[in-house]
Amino acid sequence: MSANKTTSSYWKTRMTTLPTKNGSDAQTNTLYIRVQFAGTREYLPLGTLDKTVGAERAKELYLLVLGGKLEEAKTKYAVRKHMEKKDCITVGDYLEVVKERGDLWIRTFTTYVNCLKLILSEILNLEKTKKRFSYRDGGNDEWTQKILDMPLSDISRDKVQTWRSSRIKAAGDVPPKVLAATRTANSNIRNARSLFSDKIVEKIGIIDLPDPRPFYKIKLTGNGSYKFTSENDSRELLRKARSELKENKPEAYKVVVLAGVFGLRRGEIDTLERSRFDLARLHLTLRRTEFFRGKTEASEDSMDMEQEVADEISELLKIGSSKFFVESPREAKSPGALRTYRCQEVFDEAIEWLRGQGVRGNKPLHILRKEVGAEIASEKGIYAAKDYLRHSNIDTTATYYADQKNPVTPGFGSVFKRSAQPSGRKRKTTGRMK
User: Fold this and answer.
1) Among residues 209, 221, 81, which one has the least CA distance to residue 155?
2) Partners of 35 in the beta sheet?
């Protein structure tokens, strides 16, 4: 065997599906590679139909074979025996494989799973007692296991649609509450459905999923408009923050500046390192570190700044001595399944101040980010806003941040303009005597 077999590029054109064993013309739902070792030929399953993922796995399996671990290579990405029949695949079986092979960040995977568990627990009418939060005596395990034991084939479209309808109906007749319930239900379905996307299914290579798949073609309507409407004067807010916070609460001031000028999210502010500022080049760059991972790949990018902003940042960099721009007594932690903030107390201070200035909404810091997006969209256009906010695609920007702060009208006002009455002009009369 030639040395280039230890590279993934070698295997990109050497993967194939195989005929199924049921005598039909159907092919397996996973790619294979053929290897020869110690006089025997073996087809090794790659557990995916994605050729990019498959090539990496092929290299991995080949290295195992070279190391004399043929049996491990044969089973590493093989479909588990208890999953070979469609009706026997349970939620737990499926999630186990997605976690192992789906290439999802653990926090993303946890978010999807929690939404799925919420939906299925209510479809199963599981009792909502405090016991389900009891992790020490097994109450949570017992509650969760009932969900994990549910066959995938039982997650029908009708059951999910009925769950969604009942959730929305429970909100009553008050329009804002109905809208909030609709958006929450849709969000939960959207997250849970991501576990069954084409991208995930191709990567894990699982055979004979229920047809149709869970959450297939669930209609998510009634979200209303997400357009952001500016209610704040960002410049005035920043001036007041500089006047009231810079000296008395400098860390809270830093937070307001990062959110209100650069449009950073809380997770980006929390572990932003001082070294990320390049004041000579007027850049702020976000990059993955031991303590930070962006929301998406697009989140890890650079932003420009004006010289006046760089001068202000230069002064703020002199405050504190830790590696992080915003000081906090809490230690930084590597990003995991659950989100925690080392700067929570500082965020609370900044949020309290913003509420005192009349910034409304559940997430005042995120309102500042939206104000940044609205300002750039108005002045520079929606594509500039997309780049500055570091969105993955233009659809996100168009959906949420395309608000125009400048008035947009057809310009017909002059038609209705009333002419001014000249001063001293006498009113015309008919000449009739009274």
Assistant:
1) 209
2) 42
Could you report how far apart the first and last alpha carbons of the chain are, in Å?
A: 120
Three-state SS for 46-109 is: CCCCCHHHHHHHHHHHHHHHHCCCHHHHHHCCCCCHHHCCHHHCEHHHHHHHHHHHCCCCHHHH
> Token pair for residue 271?
């572990």
Q: What is the pLDDT of residues 251-269, one digit of tens each?
A: 999 999 999 999 999 999 9
- Residue 7 tokens read as 């590279």
Q: How far is CA 20 from the centre of its chain?
A: 38
Domains of the chain and CATH, by start: 3-78 (no CATH), 86-204 (no CATH), 234-400 (1.10.443.10)
Contact 424/416 with Cβ under 8 angstroms? no
Q: Is the peptide bond before 335 cis (omega within 30 degrees of 0)?
A: no
- Check residue 352 and report its DSSP letter: H
Most distant CA pair in the chain: distance in Å?
Answer: 127
Predicted local confidence at residue 136, as pLDDT:
67
pTM score of the predicted model: 0.72
Decide the pairing of beta strands 283-285 and 302-304. Answer: antiparallel
Whether residue 291 contacts residue 339, with contact meaning beta carbons closer than 8 Å, is answered with no
